[in-house]
Design a protein that fits this description.
With 215 residues, the chain is an alpha+beta fold. Helix content is 49%, strand content 19%. The chain has a five-stranded mixed beta sheet with strand order 2-4-5-7-6, with helices on one face. Strands 1-3 form a two-stranded antiparallel sheet.
Amino acid sequence: MSDATSLEALDFAALMCSRVCHDIISPVGAITNGLEVLEEEQNEEMRAFALDLIRKSAKTASAKLKFARLAFGAAGSAGAEVDLGDAEAVARGYMESEKASLVWEAQRQLLPKNRVKLLLNLLLLSISTIPRGGTITLVGTGTAPDVAFRLTAIGPSPRVPPRLPDLLAGRMGEEGIDAHAIQPYYAGSLARDAQMTVTLDKLEDGVVIEAKPAA
């Protein structure tokens, strides 16, 4: 097994920005489309449809930005702790626009920020394992700071996305890193920084991702 490789800081920042933009461009585009309909349409039914589209899309964009701020952002100063209750709130908001539903079974407590950021990034990975939807059950065990997490994604046609294990381990391979690969690579970087060990287990009907404090 090869050692983890690193990206140049500017490349890392640019790719993470692309990843965030990828999440919010769709709802923001829908808001723009809704506003255009309001400007051009006189039909009350169409205007009501446009207003509903704008309302729902603005809510989605806001939820995705709040999630990104906690999952990818600074989340306070160095060494800061983050409330798992805040993580649950942004996770539930994010999941409202996803095909999968979320069952959150983690006790509210303060944890080192990178462990919370890792948890949210592992949630994104869990979503990618059940692209047709299903249920993701998140269980937290232990007390701060040594809390372990288990995310079980159950749904039709579950899969482990190509390169996911390598990217989590920090191995870029010949393909390198692009805006699609940067998020699992970032999750692996968080795990190493937070001294957490991440494992994946493919089941017949789903995928289990676990994160435990390194021994």
